[in-house]
Amino acid sequence: MREARVQFALLLLSFACSSSSASAQSSQPTIEELVVTPNRIPVPLRQVGTSVTVLDAEAIEAYGNLSLQDVLRQLPALAASSNGGAGQPASLRMRGEEGYRTLVIMDGMRLSDPSLPQIGPQVDQLLSSGIERVEVQRGPQGLGYGADAGGILNISSRQAGKGWNGSLEAQTGSFDTHQLNANIGAGNESVDGFVSATGFTTGGFNSRADDTVLRDRDGYSNTTLHARAGVNLTDHLRAELVHREVSGDTDFDGCYLSDFSYTHACHSTYDQSASRASLTYHDTGVSHAVSYAITDTDRASFAGGVAAFATTGKLQRWEYLGSVQAVPGLKLVFGADYERAGQEAKFRGNQGYFAEALTRFSDAWYVTAGARYDDNDDFGSNTSYRFTTAYLVPLPSANQLKFKASIGTGFRAPSPYEIAYNSGAWSYPPASLVKLQQESSKGAEAGVEYWPASGLKLEAVYFDQQVDNAIEFDLANYSGYLQDPGRSTSRGVELSAALPLSRAWSWQANYTWNDTARPDGAQRLRRPRQLINAGLQWQPQPRWLLHAFMRSSRDAIDQTFTDVVPLDNFAVLDVGGNYQLTHTLQLFARIENALDAQYQEVIGYRTPGQAIYVGFRLTPGTR
Which of 562, 522, 568, 602 is nearest to 93 (CA)? Predict the structure, then answer.
C-alpha cells in the first residue's frame, strides 16, 4: 500500500508539472540536432519521421546507474527484466518485442552475442562508463540494419577532441560494489584516439528465491576495455579502427550437477572480443564507407566447480554504405552487407542490399522510402520496406509542431541454434516434430511532437507492431522451440514531456501503455502494460546538482510451467546529487531504490533492495 501511494503521488506530481529532469533535459534533443541512426547518415532530427530519443554523457551521469540497461529502461517504451542483480541474464524489450530483436551498435560494431540461442545483445554485460551518446530508435528498423532489427541502440564512446584529455572515476557502495573507470583521449587535425578501461565488482545478493539452503551471495565482476583510433589520410578520406574486450564472471543460482541433482553453487564466465576496421570517403554531396567487423564470444558454465556447459560463437560482417545528393531535395542512401554468424559448427550467411530515398518536398514536408533485399543461406530471399514522413507546422514565436508517421517490415529466420536444438538429443515432442519457419514482422507508428519557445517538449506516439509465426521456447514442457502460428501483436501509446521550470528546476516524465497479445489473445510474458518514468532536478547554483528519478512497471505476467502468474507492480525511486568541489574534481552520491521496494521482474528471482553509492570524478581537462 505504501508503494502504491508513493507511486501515485510521484506520478501526479510529475505530470502536473509537465516534467523533465537533468538527465532528461540533456537527453531530449533540440530541434536542429543531427541524428545518424534513422537513415545511416546525419539528418536533422526535425526531418525524421520515426521516434528517436537521445542520451548524452551528462544525461547518463545524471542517472548514475552503473549498468547501461538501468539507464535505458527509464526511457519511453523500454522494459527490462533481469534474473537477479548485476551480471545476471537480462532482456531489454523495445515496444514489447523480444530482447534479441534490439540491435546494439557501439562505434559501428554490433555487440551481438553469436553464442546465444538467438543472436542478440548481452545487455547485462554493458556498463554505462565511457559512453558519450546513445541514440535510441524505436520500432522495426530492418531497412538499413538487417531485416530482424526491431529497434536500435546506437552507442558512441567518448570523443577524443583536440589535445589531451581524460577522466578518472571511482565509486563504492552497497553489496560490496566497487567500480574504477579511466578514460583518455588525444587528437589533432590528422590523428585521434580514445581508450576507456573499467573494472567493476559486486558481492551481489542471493538472487533466487528458492535458494533457502546455501543462501550464498551471487556476485559479479566485469572488466571492459574499449579503444578507438582514427587517421585522416586526406581531407576527404578517413580510416578508423575500434576494438572492445569484455570479460564477465557471474555467480548464479539454479543449475544441475553431472548426476542431474539440483544445486545453487553455479558460476559462469563470459568473454567477448569485437573489432571493426573502416574506411570512409566524404566529399560535397557524396560519401562512401566500407568496413569489416568480427566478434568472438566464449561462454562457459560451472556447477559445483565442475565444467557443465561451454560454447563459442563468431560473427563476421562486411558492409558498404554510400550516399549521394542526386538533385536538390533528393538524397539517396544505399548499401550492401554480408554477415556470417553462428556457433561451433552451426553457421549461416546472409547477404543484404538496400536503398532509400530521402526527399524534401518543401521546407516543411519530408518523406523517405526504401526497400531491402536479403538472401539467407537456409531460408532464401526476402524483401522488406520502410516509408516515413515528417511534416512541420511553423507556429508564432518560434514554436514548432511536427506530425510524423512510418511503416516498415522485416523477417527473422530461425537461428542455427533453434533448429539444431529441435533436431538434437535434448528435444522431444511437441518441439521435435516442429519444422521451424521464419517469422515476419511489420510495425507502424504515428505521432506528434511540440516544441514551444519556452523549452517545453511534448511527444505523443501511437504504435502498432505484429509478428507472424513467432518462435517461442516451450515453457510448459521444456521440449524445445515451438512456432506460435498466427499473429502476435504489440500496440500502445507513448507520452513524453520535458520542461525546464525555472533556472534551478526541471522535470521530465514519460508514460507507455503497451497492450501485447499472442495469437490466442493471451498477454505476452514479461511485457508490462504500463511503464511510468519521472524525474526532478534542482540546481540552485553551478556547483550543486540534486536529482530524483522514479520508474514504475505495472500489469506484467510470467509463467511457471503451465501456470501463468502476475508479476509485482512496483515503483523504484533513486535519488542523488553531485558537488563540484574544484574545477576538476566532482563528488557524487546516490541512493538506488531509496524506499527499498521488494519486487520480482522474473518469477522466482529477487531484485536489489536499497543501495547507497558514493564516488568522485576527476577531469583534468584538455591541454
Answer: 602
Is residue 623 in a domain?
no
Residue 157 inside a domain? The answer is: yes
Helix (H) or strand (E) holding 473: strand 457-473
CATH number of the domain within which 111 lies: 2.40.170.20
Residue 429 domain-assigned (yes or no): yes
| Tens digits of residue pLDDT in 129-166 | 999 999 999 988 888 898 778 889 999 999 877 889 99
Q: For residue range 585-609, list pLDDT tens digits in order.
A: 999 999 999 999 999 999 999 999 9
Residue from 550, 534, 570, 574 nearest 17 by CA: 534
User: For 567-587, what is each residue's pLDDT tens digit?
Assistant: 999 999 999 999 999 999 999
Is residue 346 a contact partner of residue 135, using CB atoms and an 8 Å limit?
no
Q: What is the pLDDT of residue 179?
A: 98
pLDDT in tens, 492-545: 999 999 988 888 999 999 999 999 999 999 999 999 999 999 999 999 999 999
471, 439 in Cβ contact below 8 A? yes
For the chain, how many structural domains are there in total? 1
Beta bridge partners of 271: 247, 298
**Residue 96 counted as domain residue:** yes
Residue 292's alpha-carbon distances to 234, 246, 512, in angstroms, are: 21, 20, 38
Mention every residue, 6+ apart, whose C-beta is less than 8 A from residue 529.
Answer: 513, 514, 515, 516, 523, 554, 555, 556
What lies within 8 Å, CB to CB, of 340 at 6+ separation is: 315, 316, 317, 347, 348, 349, 350
Q: Does the pLDDT at position 48 exceed 60?
A: yes
Grid cell at residue 228: 578507438
State the residue range of the domain holding 441. 2-618
User: Collapsing DSSP states into helix, strand and coil, what is residue 14?
Assistant: helix
Q: Tell me the per-residue pLDDT of 77-100, one tens digit each, with 9 for 90 and over.
A: 999 999 999 999 999 999 999 999
Angstrom distance (rounded) from CA 417 to CA 419: 5
